[in-house]
TrEMBL record, chain A:
It is found in: Cytoplasm; Nucleus. Keywords: Cytoplasm, Exosome, Nucleus, RNA-binding, rRNA processing. Residues 42-173 form the Exoribonuclease phosphorolytic domain. Its main location: cytoplasm. GO terms for cellular component: cytoplasmic exosome (RNase complex); nuclear exosome (RNase complex); nucleolus. Pfam families: RNase_PH (PF01138). Belongs to the RNase PH family. This is Exosome complex component MTR3. GO terms for biological process: nuclear mRNA surveillance; poly(A)-dependent snoRNA 3'-end processing; rRNA catabolic process; rRNA processing; U4 snRNA 3'-end processing. GO terms for molecular function: RNA binding. It comes from Entomortierella parvispora.
TrEMBL record, chain B:
The lineage of its organism: Eukaryota, Fungi, Fungi incertae sedis, Mucoromycota, Mortierellomycotina. Keywords: Exosome, Nucleus, rRNA processing. Belongs to the RNase PH family. One of its GO terms (biological process) is poly(A)-dependent snoRNA 3'-end processing. Gene3D superfamilies: GHMP Kinase, N-terminal domain (3.30.230.70). InterPro entries: ExoRNase_PH_dom1, ExoRNase_PH_dom2, ExoRNase_PH_dom2_sf, PNPase/RNase_PH_dom_sf, Ribosomal_Su5_D2-typ_SF, RNase_PH. It is found in: Nucleus. Residues 12-132, 142-180 form the Exoribonuclease phosphorolytic domain. This is Exosome complex component RRP46.
Automatic annotation (TrEMBL), chain C:
Its main location: cytoplasm. It comes from Entomortierella parvispora. It is found in: Cytoplasm; Nucleus, Nucleolus. CDD domains: RNase_PH_RRP43 (cd11369). Keywords: Cytoplasm, Exosome, Nucleus, RNA-binding, rRNA processing. This is Ribosomal RNA-processing protein 43. One of its GO terms (cellular component) is cytoplasmic exosome (RNase complex). It comes from the Eukaryota. The keyword Nucleus applies. The keyword Metal-binding does not apply.
Length: 282, 243, 288
């Protein structure tokens, strides 16, 4: 039991949801995506703003419709653990935390394996971009709080984008901004009908950019790409599930394209925050 | 109206009891009882302090509150903070820079008013440890009864469950010393400075200040009691050393 | 603040920002003696406040409150739990405040800090002791199943006065809560999954009152009252006074911690100002 919080019931569960008979659930077999306005290659509109946390050295807030994340950067500050001796390079330390109310099911306050995994991925995606060799004996702490999550792929890619914007806002020297983008492979044909024809491999799955939670339920595989647009370099690829190599290379191309668009948004947000701080100081 | 225990009037406190210097490994210790409630407090210090907590110009005060049973929870954390922040201006911590004073407050018996009992036990333990203070404090709890709307001093657990609102007050004895001549004056609501106050429930502003006033009067008895307790202890010590 | 580079001059001079870093208390005192605060507010001034409802769609009720630089998001999630044996028809209200390291460098990763615990406890006491909600409203089937409302406050940006912001967000989120009407059938609680929520398939909470608070700090010897302290003011000042009042002007909680004795007239002033402030805040919350 957690003694450092107001105690609640030991066990509580979400109620069982009973859908009415006429309830229509979205499937990928129809004409449209879950969000009917989007084409397969469209991302959700991004809202990105830097500098909302005034105690942090740098901060950013990102919103892709329902996916909402905030990120705060603290540092460079002296490294806490002194036991490991001198280190010529700085340490980048990213931590993702899901708010308890951020998902359909209530999450616990404890750090769970998924949070640890996502934290590691964000760290790996950002480290190549940050010039840590300039910051000996110091650590940069990047804290990301997920306020609302709508699919893990978009959540992870938003975390990467948001964290790199916050790092830039903190004035930490980087080689380039890192934009994150996700894509899901979703078959447009119901499984039963595809197997009756000539095997599932003949019809390549549709690539849905920036899939949301409903769409992810049907995905065969997904890719999350972290990319430095102006250097044209990839910092991290996470491919999961089954897909042919052509599908993968195609989706990487799609993601790179989308990252370039995200880059423009990040650029704009950073410029805006500079202009704002200029106006405030005048 | 008779109270639940049928022996007290509305603004009568339960019998006090205190004993100092109970623990021989601590620098100072005291037990304070309000009827069926009892709190034991130990003080260690001024002693070495962790470098992380060290303050360059004064002593670091640490309070640890322990519940009657089980492990401490957030209620105890609130209690720790209340006691610590109230004592900080009281203790002349500037005399012992870069040291630590650790105060442990252990509930021994619980029959309501634990926070008040803890405050009184703490000040006795600090006096026992010889920590310099700029004044002493006295704490009293009162409730406004749900049914009768009457203000009852020093409630028991049973009375607390029927309270509309609960009020804990702490007063120092500065005001009563400086104006001993005009005793009537300092019982006036305008001149009873409140050191600590914590109230919950539902109540009006008027009720609150009425409670403050009644508790202030009751706190004078606590101050007097602490005074005699210390006096007696010193007399005893004097006799022992000079016998 | 305006920060100019120190001009080379024979006398020993600092820029304003250097002075602030070296002698924060003295810097502050200079402002207070002129009756203003470093951020331009008067001593009695509260920071601009905004309230947004329903910001989190995965929660049953949610609200975001900003008080100056302090931003908190509160989400309420309703789950089904077994009631306590001694209160078989009462649900649970579980408010918790999370001061995660994202919001300020003052907080470290790990279990909740003392401040988070004290704030959670204060909100818990206000909700329960002043009977904001009848816990019997949360009963599904007596002795078998009740709603447990997990009220979680996440602080996104910390700039002082967390109690006021957190309490306001909790009350706003509770007012925003909509729970699907449950049916109890042999140990299983079911809710309808209909898309649109209306009064037929869901219910709102029946709040008895909306307690809102105003906090003040006492600035050292002069005992000046500063309303709605920010982070810097909180770390310089010692005494804290928080007054929580409901819409009828009844006090729900009052705490005065630390900072030496203060006369009842100061507390009276706090109560009066808290009444005014909560009225303004309440008007702001009802606008939307």
């Amino acid at each position: 039991m957690d003694r450092k919080r107001v105690p609640g019931p030991e066990l509580s569960v979400a109620p069982l949801v009973e859908y009415p008979v006429d309830h229509k659930r979205w499937t990928p077999y129809g004409e449209t995506r879950h969000d009917a306005k989007r084409q397969p290659e469209d991302m959700r509109p991004i809202y990105l703003k830097t500098g909302l946390i005034n105690q942090a050295n740098g901060s950013a807030y990102i919103e892709l419709e329902k996916t909402k994340l905030a990120c705060g950067v603290y540092g460079p500050r002296p490294i806490k653990r002194t036991g490991q001796g001198f280190s010529g390079k700085g340490v980048l330390n990213c931590e993702i935390k899901f708010a308890t109310f951020s998902c359909a099911k209530r999450r616990s306050n404890m750090r769970d394996p998924q949070e640890k995994e996502l934290s590691l991925i964000v760290t790996q995606a950002l480290t190549p971009a940050v010039r840590l060799e300039l910051l000996p004996k110091s650590a940069i702490d990047v804290y990301i709080t997920v306020l609302e999550s709508d699919g893990w792929g978009s959540c992870l890619s938003a975390a990467i984008t948001c964290a790199s914007a916050a790092l830039a806002h903190a004035g930490i020297e980087m080689l380039d901004l890192v934009a994150g983008c996700s894509a899901s492979y979703i078959s447009n044909v119901p499984e039963s009908s595809s197997s009756s024809t000539s095997g599932s491999s003949s019809i390549p799955p549709q690539i849905y950019m920036d899939a949301d939670l409903e769409e992810e339920k049907y995905e065969q595989g997904a890719i999350v790409l972290a990319y430095m647009p102006s250097l044209n370099e990839v910092t991290h690829v996470l491919q999961s599930g089954k897909a042919e190599s052509t599908t993968i290379s195609q989706s990487v191309e799609h993601c790179v394209e989308a990252c370039n668009k995200i880059y423009a948004v990040m650029h704009h947000a950073l410029l805006e925050s500079i202009n704002e701080s200029k106006n405030n100081s005048l | 109206m008779a109270r639940l225990d049928r022996t007290r009037t509305a603004n009568q406190l339960r019998p006090f009891f205190s004993s100092q210097n109970l623990l021989n490994r601590a620098d100072g210790s005291a037990q304070f009882d309000f009827g069926g409630s009892s709190v034991l407090c130990s003080v260690v210090g001024p002693a070495e302090v962790k470098i992380r907590d060290e303050k360059l110009d004064r002593a670091t005060i640490e309070v640890i509150a322990r519940p009657l049973v089980g492990l401490p929870g957030i209620k105890d954390k609130s209690r720790e903070r209340s006691i610590r922040e109230t004592l900080e201006p009281l203790i002349l911590s500037g005399l012992h820079p870069r040291t630590g004073i650790q105060i442990v407050v252990q509930t021994m018996k619980d029959d309501g008013c634990i926070l008040s009992t803890a405050f009184n036990a703490t000040v006795l333990a600090l006096l026992d440890a010889g920590i310099p203070l700029n004044s002493i404090l006295g704490s009293v709890t009162c409730i406004v009864d749900e049914k009768s709307g009457e203000i009852l001093l020093d409630p028991t657990t049973e009375e607390l469950s029927q309270a509309k609102s609960t009020h804990v007050f702490v007063f120092d004895n500065k005001s009563s010393i400086s104006t001993t001549g005009a005793a009537a004056m300092d019982l006036d609501s305008e001149s009873s400075p409140i050191l600590f106050s914590d109230s919950t429930g539902l109540y009006t502003e008027e009720e609150y200040f009425k409670c403050a006033n009644i508790c202030h009067k009751a706190a004078q008895t606590v101050h007097g009691f602490i005074r005699t307790a210390v006096q007696k202890k010193l007399e005893k010590e004097y006799q022992q050393t000079h016998a | 603040m305006t920060s100019t580079s120190a001009a080379p001059s024979p006398a020993f001079t600092f820029s304003a920002s250097t002075f602030q870093k070296l002698h924060p208390a003295e810097y502050f005192r200079k402002f207070i003696s002129q009756g203003v605060r470093p951020d331009g507010r008067l001593l009695t001034g509260f920071r601009p406040t905004t309230v947004h409802y329903g910001v989190i769609s995965t929660a049953n009720g949610s609200a975001m409150v900003r008080v100056g630089g302090t931003t908190v998001v509160c989400g309420v999630k309703a789950e089904v739990a077994e009631p306590r044996l001694d209160s078989p028809d009462q649900g649970y209200l579980v408010p918790n405040v999370d001061l995660s390291p994202i919001c300020s460098s003052a907080f470290r990763p790990g279990p909740p800090s003392e401040q988070a615990q004290v704030t959670s406890d204060a909100i818990d006491r206000v909700l329960k002791e002043s009977k904001v909600l009848d816990l019997k409203d949360l009963c599904i089937e007596e002795g078998k199943a009740v709603w447990s409302l997990w009220i979680d406050v996440v602080c996104v940006s910390y700039d002082g006065n967390i109690y006021d912001a957190a309490l306001a967000s909790v009350m706003a989120a509770l007012a925003n809560v909509r729970i699907r009407k449950p049916t109890y059938d042999e140990g299983i609680v079911k809710v309808s999954g209909a898309q649109e929520l209306d009064d037929d398939n869901s219910f709102k909470l029946n709040l008895n009152r909306t307690p809102l608070s105003a906090s003040f700090v006492l600035f050292d010897t002069s005992l000046e009252l500063l309303a709605d302290p920010n982070f810097a003011e909180e770390s310089i000042c010692e005494g804290q006074i928080s007054v929580t009042v409901d819409e009828e002007g009844q006090i729900c909680a009052l705490s005065k911690v630390g900072g030496g004795s203060s006369s009842p007239s100061i507390l009276k002033e706090c109560v009066d100002r808290a009444k005014e402030r909560s009225k303004d805040l309440r008007a702001l919350m009802q606008q939307q």
